[in-house]
Design the sequence.
């Protein structure tokens, strides 16, 4: 079992968001601020790793025809747990994320990893694979949210980063970065940079 | 809010793709030609019109707090809302399956047009997302929920057909190598989203 390969490759080379283009929906909507993006990244990582682990344990007992339903049930149970946990311990963030916590169920990364990996590998490897892919997803989320919050509101995690003297000198926050369409453009640029780097190697 | 306003709002202002990014995965994967994307858009609209009202009824009479009072007053304090996700996704998967069977028996031509898209729709986030938005917005009756589903579906159809048309023409343009394919589609969708934001100022 190659731990390093399973964990590191999904960060750049087979990144689920920029290379495989999975799980885009939630990735864009929660990135206006860094904090919800972090919470979302952690939630998705937990759900991906655990669902990969559980499905991998069950893989020999699941009849092929109904495997999608079984997968959906396992994933939605995990998502309910995450949702209840967030509501109990991080209520404002869970309000900010609103429906997107529920949408983790239909996040294609999870279904994709279950289909492509967990059904054919052992539980330990599947767990690591889920963890790696969740981290790859979180990485992109954090990069996009970092730029959108820094340029859009001049803050990071709610703390002011751009010094007050800049505002007095006439600097203005770029309100466009907060708006939903900019998430698409930022992620397009991230893909561009990522692709041109992997190509030149 | 009148029904017509609700319809317009869900098509243009609260567009599933440009405002909420729901169903992006299939939106990017299937938007290579106008014909197939129109088929998928139609299938999504169809499923939304059926699933949103059904989930509305499920939410009203089964899930929300105190919803079970119609069975007996003793259940008035029961709150099953934590079961929302699991029940909604099960209902959606079941309805998609049933719809597929119905369409296959009664209108084979439509079935062959929608093709493989129908079963895939069960895991399209636009469908689940629309049901969850419906739950969040507290519509007053089942008709409003149905109109919301129809509007969202048509908004999605509009978006995917538009991007497919642009991508068909895009084949003839020179794009930096690393930006080709999905990268440029993202940026175009972003620009289209900015254009759609013009509708946001309209108060309906």
Sequence:
């Amino acid at each position: 079992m190659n731990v390093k390969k399973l964990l590191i490759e999904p960060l750049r080379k087979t990144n689920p968001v920029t290379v495989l283009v999975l799980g885009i929906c939630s990735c864009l909507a929660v990135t206006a601020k860094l904090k919800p993006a972090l919470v979302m990244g952690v939630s998705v990582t937990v759900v991906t790793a655990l669902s990969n682990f559980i499905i991998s344990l069950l893989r020999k007992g699941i009849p092929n025809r109904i495997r999608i339903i079984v997968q959906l049930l396992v994933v939605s149970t995990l998502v309910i747990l995450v949702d209840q946990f967030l509501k109990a311990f991080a209520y404002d963030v869970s309000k900010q994320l609103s429906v997107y916590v529920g949408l983790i169920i239909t996040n294609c990364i999870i279904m994709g990893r279950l289909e492509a990996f967990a059904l054919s590998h052992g539980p330990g490897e599947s767990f690591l694979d889920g963890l790696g892919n969740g981290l790859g997803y979180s990485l992109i989320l954090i990069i996009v949210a970092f730029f959108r919050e820094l340029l859009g509101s001049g803050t990071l995690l709610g703390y002011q980063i751009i010094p007050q003297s800049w505002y007095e000198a006439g600097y203005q926050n770029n309100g466009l970065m907060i708006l939903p369409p900019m998430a698409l453009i930022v992620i397009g640029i991230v893909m561009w940079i990522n692709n041109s780097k992997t190509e030149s190697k | 809010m009148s029904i017509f306003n609700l319809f317009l709002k869900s098509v243009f202002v609260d567009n599933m793709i440009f405002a909420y990014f729901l169903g992006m995965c299939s939106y990017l994967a299937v938007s290579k030609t106008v014909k197939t994307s129109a088929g998928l858009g139609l299938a999504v609209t169809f499923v939304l019109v059926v699933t949103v009202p059904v989930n509305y009824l499920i939410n009203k009479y089964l899930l929300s707090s105190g919803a079970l009072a119609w069975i007996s007053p003793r259940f008035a304090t029961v709150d099953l809302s934590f079961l929302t996700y699991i029940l909604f996704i099960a209902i959606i998967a079941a309805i998609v399956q049933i719809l597929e069977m119905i369409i296959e028996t009664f209108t084979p031509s439509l079935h062959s047009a929608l093709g493989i898209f129908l079963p895939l729709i069960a895991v399209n986030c636009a469908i689940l997302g629309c049901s969850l938005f419906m739950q969040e917005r507290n519509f007053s009756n089942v008709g409003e929920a149905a109109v919301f589903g129809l509007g969202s579906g048509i908004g999605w159809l509009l978006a995917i057909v538009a991007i497919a048309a642009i991508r068909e023409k895009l084949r003839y343009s020179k794009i930096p190598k690393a930006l080709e394919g999905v990268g440029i589609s993202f940026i175009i969708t972003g620009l289209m989203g900015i254009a759609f934001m013009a509708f946001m100022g309209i108060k309906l």
User: Anything to note?
Assistant: The mean pLDDT of chain B is 82. Chain B touches chain A through 46 residues (CB under 8 Å). The longest helix of chain B spans residues 34-63. Residues 100 and 115 of chain B are 10 Å apart (CA to CA).
